[in-house]
Structures are given as structure tokens and as C-alpha cells.
Design goal:
By secondary structure, the chain is of the alpha+beta class. It has six helices and 13 strands. Bound molecules: copper (II) ion (CU). Copper (II) ion (CU) binds next to loops.
Length: 304
């Protein structure tokens, strides 16, 4: 707990287990009564059916008790919901964009990443949007989930209260690559986070600096479907792409081509034009500027 803010899992889990307990009690109760009735009121024991008059006490009981239970569930849910919608004023802002099929994160200093890095014990506000279709951001460990809607900004917050890495999923079916739309939340010590947050812009050469094109491949989500190491994914590998001879299908006809700049550009701008043989025609047209496209093509040329 920091400044009175705490992890949400407590309030979400208590409502969940309360509902679970009610379900188990009802299942046991209904099954028990049913078995008892099957025996006690069988045709053998009761050859002549009789009318049963209504039972006011019983009816009041089974109206009032479920109403109270539902109100208790509502109260727990409402308190958790209010908590979830109230972002601490000192929260760190991270902009999140979901796209087919990857997540990208942008920090207040302009830094971008594909993993959500956050410092320990500092509330984080996620401002969420989508570049294409509906997605939904889900961090199970923090019990938070919110839709990513194109043209709209939604938000969430959470308090990273334990160092470690946690799954971050898309939890709204968004097309063939939906299951690839997965990344991590990395909760770092404040020092490690500060180090990560400040570097890269002035890379000192101790780490290989990613070229613009390589970063774009991550940012635009290309590597969710294309590998860099020759392995098969949803789409053909980028390794050795430039100059590769391959068969493409257009309008039902096979054609052998050699991959050149023009072909790569067309593949990105109009993915439905030439379909690489043996692959499904599911590559989305990913919006980007001409400059970005040029950077990507230049980078793809270097992947031998
Ligand atoms: Cu998605």
C-alpha cells in the first residue's frame, strides 16, 4: 500500500470468491433438494397427485434472500469499480496503442517500447487507444481490463507493487493474429526503471542500437507475423527476403518473382495484391508514412 493506494486484486478477488461460494452453496442445495424430491415424491410413493397450495413464507424467503445477495455483490463491485476509475494524481502516464496484432507503449518523455516497463510502487495510468479495430487490454495479475477503441481514449490504472514480469494480453478477438497479441509488464526497481527510461536516446554504443527500420518492424507489429531468424510464423520470414525467388499467387495464377524493392513496397501497401504461395491472405494494410515505409524497406534489404 502506497499513500493509501493498493492493489486491486483484493477487492476483485473477494467479490469473485463471494459469488463462487454462493454458486457452490446453491448447486449443493438444489441438487440435494432435487434428489430428496425424486425419492420422497416418486410415483410409487404417491400414486394420486395432489394440488399444493402456495407458501407465502417460502416465497418471501426466496425473493428477499437473493435480492440481498445480489445487492451485496453490487456493493462490492461498485466499490471496486469506483476505485478502478479513480486515478491517483501522481500517476505516471503511458500511452498505449493496440493494433493488429501488437501493443506499443509511449512514455511522457517520448520513449517507446513494446514491453510495458514500470517502476515499483508508482501508480501507472494507461491511456489506451487502437489504430485499427477493437482490442482489449488485459493484465490478469493486476485484475484490470479495458477496451482499446479506434478514435477514442480509454484509461486504466494500476499500482505495480512487486518486482517481476506479468502477462499482458489482448482479450477481445480481433482477427487471425489475435493470440499473438501478447506482451509483458515488467515491474522494475525505481533505479533500474530510471536507467532504462533515460537511455537509448543517447545510446553510448555499449548496446547495439536498433536502426529506425528495425524499431518500426516492432512498433508496427510486423514481427508478430514475420520472424527475423528464418523460422515459420503466420507469414514468411524476413530473413533473406531481399533477392529471394518465390512463387506468388495473383488472381488465381501462380507466378515466380524475385523479391525486390518494388515488390516489398507493394506487399506492404497492398497486401492483397500478390499472395506468397503457401500463406493465408490475411496480412492487414498497416497505416504508415512514406518515410516509415522507406525505412522498413531499407532495413528489410539488410536481413540476410
Ligand atoms: Cu487485439
Amino acid at each position: 500500500m502506497v499513500n493509501g493506494w493498493q492493489h486491486l486484486s483484493g477487492s476483485v478477488d473477494s467479490v469473485f470468491f463471494f459469488i463462487m461460494a454462493i454458486c457452490i452453496a446453491l448447486l449443493a442445495g438444489v441438487t440435494g433438494v432435487m434428489l430428496y424430491f425424486v425419492v420422497r415424491y416418486s410415483r410409487k410413493r404417491n400414486p394420486h397427485p395432489v394440488d399444493v397450495a402456495d407458501n407465502l413464507a417460502l416465497e418471501i424467503f426466496w425473493t428477499v434472500v437473493p435480492t440481498l445477495l445480489v445487492l451485496v455483490i453490487f456493493w462490492g463491485g461498485w466499490k471496486g469499480f469506483q476505485y478502478m476509475r479513480t486515478v491517483p494524481p501522481d500517476a505516471m502516464l503511458v500511452k498505449v496503442t493496440g493494433r493488429m496484432w501488437s501493443w506499443s507503449f509511449e512514455y511522457e518523455n517520448g520513449k517507446r517500447s513494446t514491453v510495458l516497463n514500470v517502476p515499483l510502487q508508482r501508480p501507472v495510468k494507461l491511456a489506451i487507444t487502437s489504430a485499427d479495430v477493437l482490442h482489449s487490454l488485459f493484465i490478469p495479475a493486476y485484475r484490470i481490463k479495458e477496451d482499446a477503441v479506434p478514435g477514442l481514449e480509454t484509461y486504466l490504472w494500476f499500482l505495480p507493487d512487486e518486482i517481476g514480469t506479468y502477462d499482458l494480453f489482448c482479450t477481445e478477438y480481433c482477427g487471425a493474429g489475435h493470440s499473438a497479441m501478447i506482451t509483458k509488464v515488467a515491474v522494475l526497481s525505481p533505479k533500474a526503471f530510471e536507467q532504462w527510461y533515460k537511455t537509448e536516446e543517447e545510446s553510448d554504443g555499449s548496446k547495439p542500437h536498433l536502426s529506425e527500420g528495425a524499431e518500426l518492424l516492432q512498433e508496427k507489429g510486423c514481427i508478430a507475423c514475420h520472424s527475423l531468424d528464418g523460422s515459420a510464423k503466420v507469414g514468411p520470414t524476413f530473413k533473406g527476403l531481399f533477392g529471394r525467388k518465390e512463387t506468388v499467387v495473383a488472381a488465381g495464377k501462380d507466378r515466380t518473382i524475385t523479391v525486390d524493392e518494388e515488390y516489398i513496397l507493394r506487399s506492404i501497401k497492398d497486401p492483397a495484391a500478390d499472395i506468397t504461395k503457401g500463406f493465408p491472405p490475411i496480412m492487414p494494410a498497416i497505416p504508415m508514412s512514406d518515410d516509415e515505409m522507406r525505412e522498413i524497406v531499407e532495413h528489410l534489404k539488410t536481413l540476410k
